[in-house]
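Saturday, quiet lab. Running sequence design on the structure tokens for the scaffold JK sent over.
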């Protein structure tokens, strides 16, 4: 160790102006000074010489700045070895390191989202996130499946991978959207797919991504799903999610699965716009409708619908009815109604409801909703949506027949074989009457009177008998009465001839006179029957007296139009 300094006597300081001597005490040594190097005067300097022992480096320059209370010496490095700067900072960018400027300053600046604070005097610089708070070093997730973790930690590079994922409904319990870690250092944002549900789920946990059948839904470019716009492309009378059922004594209109209709579980129906011919409207049906029949406290008693008042129309003879939805005058609402009219496009002025038993013609409508104002629905467009059957007792009260395969929403009962009831529409003996009230009408060993309905308002009649069993008499026109009144004279078809089989002839030979259907002269006012003549050009009517006991089989069929659509 070598010491340098000025001798302890008075000398001229100017005589030591070169580099051979220093006015400040100084030490050269192969090591760095320590706290135990305290035998030197204050401000003594220390330089590491060329024989430096690591970690010391040659050229390091130190200065004794104070003595601590315990006597330890405090030495401060003023410069590094090999003329390196006293302060260097190594960054993520690597070499070369950041060096202090000539004044010993190094600027520490914040980057994006990083703030650097600290004002002197003081020895603290604070580096923090802009806005405060701690840096994220882990992420808590909703679910994890090994080797995934919760929380998710970054990898060796400080990264956590995040990706989107579609999962089955219920994969993450009660979470339509959830974070789920399945591998270390990563997690997925799961979105579940949708599924079919019962109406009105108790919460939103089952919701999910879904696609839509373009036969029933329209999806706009903004993602808006509209069933109404899609249904406008369907024919008038189209329904969606609509059903009917009967559980004595109640007939009910509900959704297609028998559940209650509501704003969250509506049905839909397409009807004609009342104010713009050729246009359509779609309405949601958000409530059930029902009525009670004669097996309970009847809502429909007293309406005849064109049948004979006080005379039963009962099984096996059943009366088909059709369910319609009728739009109001303003085109803002629809209501369900029933009618015997099987091809109506508009309603009539004869509309009944539970508190108003006035549906007394075969074209009448009857509304299930007693709160409507009937006049708001008169002569308005209606959409036929389904069919069912009823029977009537002698009190003009009706009972719904349990629905069969030809009944229901979307059904028509067209082509179904129906049975004519006796003593209806003016008949006084089964299906017959005479223009002369005192005549004795024929009776038969067997007879069948069936009919069926076809689109366009037509009724097809099939009538057959076997063997006259009495002695008919009288000179009045023999009449056969119809299940529906005819719409007009011009609507009868197939008015050909028929004959009786005289059973007194051997081998059932067909013989005797041929008779033809004829339309009565007063048919425009009485349209509920047809008569017969003895020839196609004759005006001589077949009378009860023209038939005799034992006369044989009779068979005939024809069609007529009951309604004009």
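Result came back. Writing it out in full:
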């Amino acid at each position: 160790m070598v010491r340098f300094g000025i001798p302890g006597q008075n000398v001229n300081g100017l005589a030591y102006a070169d580099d051979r001597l220093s006015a400040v005490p100084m030490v050269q040594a192969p090591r760095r000074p320590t706290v135990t190097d305290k035998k030197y005067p204050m401000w003594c300097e220390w330089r590491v010489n060329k024989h430096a022992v690591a970690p010391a480096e040659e050229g390091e320059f130190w200065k004794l700045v104070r003595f601590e209370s315990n006597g330890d010496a405090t030495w401060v490095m003023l410069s590094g070895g090999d003329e390196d700067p006293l302060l260097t900072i190594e960054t993520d960018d690597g070499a070369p390191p950041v060096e202090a400027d000539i004044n010993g300053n190094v600027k520490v600046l914040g980057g994006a989202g990083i703030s650097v604070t600290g004002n002197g005097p003081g020895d603290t610089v604070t580096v923090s996130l802009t806005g405060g708070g701690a840096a994220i070093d882990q992420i808590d997730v909703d679910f994890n499946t090994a080797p995934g973790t919760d929380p998710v930690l970054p990898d060796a590079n400080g990264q956590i991978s995040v990706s989107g994922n579609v999962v089955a409904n219920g994969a993450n319990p009660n979470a339509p959207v959830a974070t789920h870690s399945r591998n270390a250092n990563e997690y997925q944002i799961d979105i579940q797919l949708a599924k079919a549900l019962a109406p009105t789920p108790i919460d939103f946990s089952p919701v999910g991504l879904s696609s839509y059948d373009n036969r029933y839904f329209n999806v706009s470019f903004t993602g808006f799903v509209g069933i109404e716009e899609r249904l406008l492309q369907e024919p008038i009378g189209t329904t969606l999610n609509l059903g009917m059922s009967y559980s004595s004594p109640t007939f009910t209109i509900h959704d297609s699965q028998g559940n209650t209709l509501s704003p969250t579980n509506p049905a839909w129906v397409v009807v004609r716009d009342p104010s713009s011919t050729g246009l359509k409207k779609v309405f949601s049906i958000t409530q059930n409708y029902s009525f009670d029949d004669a097996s309970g406290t009847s809502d429909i008693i007293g309406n005849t619908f064109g049948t004979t008042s006080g005379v039963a129309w009962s099984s096996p003879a059943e009366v088909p009815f059709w369910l319609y939805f009728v739009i109001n005058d303003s085109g803002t609402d629809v209501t369900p109604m029933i009618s015997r009219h099987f091809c109506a496009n508009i309603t009539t002025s004869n509309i009944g409801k539970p508190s108003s038993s006035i549906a007394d013609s075969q074209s009448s409508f009857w509304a299930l909703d007693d709160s409507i104002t009937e006049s708001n629905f008169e002569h308005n467009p209606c959409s036929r949506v389904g069919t069912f059957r009823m029977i009537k007792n002698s009190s003009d009260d009706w009972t719904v027949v349990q629905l069969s395969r030809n009944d229901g929403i979307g059904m028509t009962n067209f082509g179904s074989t129906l049975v004519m009831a006796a003593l209806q529409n003016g008949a006084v003996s089964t299906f017959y009457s005479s223009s002369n009230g005192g005549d004795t009408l024929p009776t038969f060993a067997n007879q069948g009177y069936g009919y069926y309905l076809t689109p366009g308002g037509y009724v097809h009649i099939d009538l057959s008998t076997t063997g006259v069993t009495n002695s008919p008499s009288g000179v009045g026109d023999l009449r056969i009465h119809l299940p529906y009144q005819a719409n007009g004279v011009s609507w009868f078809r197939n008015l050909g001839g028929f004959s009786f089989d005289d059973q007194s002839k051997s081998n059932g030979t067909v013989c005797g006179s041929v008779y033809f259907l004829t339309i009565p002269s007063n048919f425009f006012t009485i349209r509920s029957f047809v008569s017969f003549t003895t020839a196609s050009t004759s005006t001589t009517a077949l009378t009860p007296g023209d038939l005799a006991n034992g006369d044989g089989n009779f068979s005939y069929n024809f069609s007529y139009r009951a309604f004009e659509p």
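Notes for JK: Residues 495-514 have pLDDT under 50 and may be disordered. Helices lie at 227-231. Ask whether to fix the surface positions before the next round.
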